[in-house]
Amino acid sequence: MKNIRYFIIKQAEKKFHIHAEHPFRRIPEAQVLRIPNKKNWFALFMKIPKRKLGINEEGLVDIVNLKSDEFISGTLRRNPGYFPAYHMKKSNWVSILLDGTVLSNDILELLEISYDRCAHPIQNRPFKDQTWIIPSNPKYYDIHQEIENSPDHSLLWHQYPNFHKGDTVFIYETAPSQKIIYEGYISEEKIPCSDTNEPFSSKQNMLIKILFDDRSQEFTLSMMKEYGVGPIRGPRHLPEELVQDLRASRKNH
């Protein structure tokens, strides 16, 4: 539906101070949103035949392609309205129907993730023993149940680039709590996926051993901003000062 596309684009233009472009002469209705001062886009809007997405119907459908990561994209594709990306890398891009199946607010949230992924890709780093924070969205993944079901409180997670055995990993829960909820470390890396037919599977996984449950702590996003940490839409490093203060507050409880 054109009004959904219009709403999403207008919200993006306002938030990111950009303007949608029509880059394809042969496909005049297609639009893209680009990272400011860069050529790469983070959203592609177009109409395609429904059968291109595996929908057994005639006619066209309006979609948007957004970038995420293999874990989130695979999880999304288990829900109505989400499909392996059309004409993009299917492991970390997803096509979303703009016909009302997916709520506009959910699309806007994923649009921000796509912007962050395209604007700040993880760069290769030669050193290990790093401290990371990764987001977990309770709308798509019940991390608490997963940990409770694990005999040794471990999580099988999509293997991120530059994450290595021994690295510290903090897990941040997105809305509603928006705070750090667990600390652990990578006990195994580059684990081959046992079932590539699973919709959320990736080529390799890593195992995160959970050491501390920090749900009773209040290291929220607003508090982390005091340490220079911005919105957590993907994996990123944590300042050592923040890590030390969090661990100190844990001892005082």
From TrEMBL:
SUPFAM superfamilies noted in UniProt: YjbR-like (SSF142906)
Organism domain of life: Bacteria
Pfam families listed in its UniProt record: YjbR
Coiled-coil spans in chain: none
PANTHER family documented for this protein: CYTOPLASMIC PROTEIN, CYTOPLASMIC PROTEIN-RELATED
Name this polypeptide is given: MmcQ protein
Source species of the chain: Bulleidia extructa W1219
High-level lineage: Bacteria, Bacillati, Bacillota, Erysipelotrichia, Erysipelotrichales
